[in-house]
Design goal:
Layout (H helix, E strand, L loop, with lengths): L3 E5 L4 H12 L4 E5 L9 E4 L8 H5 L2 E6 L7 H15 L4 E7 L8 H14 L5 E6 L3 H12 L4 E4 L2 E2 L4 H12 L5 E2 L9 E2 H12 L7 E4 L3 H8 L15 H7 L10
Parallel strand pairs: 1-2, 1-4, 2-3, 4-5, 5-6, 6-9, 7-11
Antiparallel strand pairs: 8-10
Helix pairs in contact: 1-6, 3-4, 5-7, 7-9
This protein binds NADP nicotinamide-adenine-dinucleotide phosphate.
The site of NADP nicotinamide-adenine-dinucleotide phosphate (NAP) has 26 residues, from helix 1, strand 2 and strand 5.
Length: about 260
C-alpha cells in the first residue's frame, strides 16, 4: 500500500488544493489543521506547529510531508518544529517545502524568514525538496484591489508573474511523488506583466466600467529595488497555465474541497 502523505496547512489556499488533488488520485492523505476537521477521503489531524501540540501524531508513519502551512510571524520556528517531529518519528519522510521566488534577494521580513526556513530544511539531513513559486493570483488581486478603489490608481513600476494555486499544487504533488531534489527549479505563472497591466485586467473583470488612470509610484529602498529589478520573477519558468484573467473570471465559484 502507498505510504501516507501529510499535507500541513490543509485548509489554506494552496494546501486545500493539494489535499483535493491527492484525494482525487486516491492517494492516502492526512491533513493538518489547528482545529478539528473532517471531510470525505481525508484523515484530518489536529496540531499546532507553534507549540508542537499534536505534531508527533501528525507525522507518525508518513512517507512524505507537503508543508503548506505558514505562520507569518513564526515561520522558522514552525518549520523547526516540523523537522524535529519528523526526525523523532524515525521515518525520515521526504519534506516538501513551498517557498517564494526572490526570498534571497528581497529583504522583507517574511521573505527573510522563508529563506531561513529553507535553510533549516536543507540543513536537516532529511530528504527534501524546496519549490519557490511566484506570487499567487489571489495575492496580486488583493494588492491591486485596494488601489483600484481609489480614483487614481497608484501603480509601482513592478512586474508580477501571478500563478494559480492549482498549478503550484500540481507541481508540488509531482515533486512529492518523485525523488527528493533539494532545491527544485522555480515555478512561475504563465505571464510576466506590469502592475499597470494587471490593474487594468482587474478593473475590466470588475465590470464597473472604471478606467485606469494610473499614477506611477516609486518604491524606495532595497525592497523596492528588489521588485524593480524583477527578483520576484521566474521568466524562464513560466510553467503555470492559468492566467490572471482566467482566475478573475472564476471568482465566486465554489471550491471542490469541503470540510467541517
Ligand atoms: N501567497 C502567495 O503569493 C505565495 C507565493 C509563493 C509561495 N507561497 C507560500 O505558499 C504557502 C501556502 O500559502 P497560503 O497562501 O496557501 O497560506 P494560507 O492560505 O494563509 O494558509 C495558511 C495555513 O497554515 C495553517 N497554519 C497557520 N499557522 C499554523 C500553525 N501554527 N500550526 C499549524 N498550521 C498552521 C493554517 O491552518 P489552520 O488555520 O486550519 O490551522 C492554514 O491552513 C506558504 O508557505 C507561502 O509562503 C505563497
Amino acid at each position: 500500500m502507498a505510504e501516507q502523505i501529510l499535507v500541513t496547512g490543509g485548509t489554506g489556499q494552496l494546501g486545500r488544493v493539494v489535499v483535493e488533488r491527492l484525494r482525487a488520485a486516491e492517494a492516502p492523505v492526512r491533513a493538518l489543521s489547528r482545529r478539528r476537521r473532517s471531510s470525505e477521503g481525508v484523515e484530518w489531524t489536529a496540531g499546532d506547529l507553534r507549540d508542537g501540540r499534536g505534531i508527533d501524531v501528525a507525522v507518525a508513519g508518513v512517507g512524505t510531508v507537503i508543508h503548506c502551512a505558514t505562520d507569518y510571524r513564526r515561520e522558522v520556528q514552525t518549520v523547526r518544529t516540523l523537522v524535529e517531529a519528523a526526525r523523532w518519528s524515525g521515518q525520515t519522510p521526504h519534506l516538501v517545502y513551498v517557498s517564494i521566488v526572490g526570498v534571497d534577494k528581497i529583504p522583507m521580513g517574511y521573505y527573510q524568514a522563508k529563506l531561513a526556513a529553507e535553510k533549516v530544511i536543507a540543513d536537516s539531513g532529511m530528504p527534501h525538496t524546496i519549490l519557490r513559486a511566484t506570487q499567487f493570483h489571489s495575492l496580486v488581486r488583493t494588492i491591486l484591489a485596494g488601489a483600484a478603489r481609489l480614483p487614481l490608481v497608484p501603480v509601482p513600476k513592478f512586474r508580477f508573474q501571478p500563478v494559480d494555486v492549482r498549478d503550484v499544487a500540481a507541481r508540488l504533488v509531482e515533486l512529492a511523488q518523485g525523488e527528493p531534489r533539494g532545491r527544485a527549479a522555480d515555478f512561475g505563472g504563465p505571464e510576466v506583466r506590469t502592475t499597470e497591466d494587471l490593474a487594468r485586467a482587474l478593473l475590466a473583470a470588475s465590470g464597473k466600467g472604471k478606467r485606469l488612470v494610473s499614477v506611477p509610484v516609486p518604491v524606495p529602498g532595497r525592497i523596492g529595488r528588489g521588485y524593480a529589478t524583477g527578483a520576484n520573477l521566474a521568466p524562464n519558468h513560466a510553467d503555470g497555465v492559468v492566467t490572471f484573467e482566467q482566475y478573475l473570471a472564476e471568482q465566486g465559484k465554489p471550491t471542490a474541497l469541503r470540510y467541517r
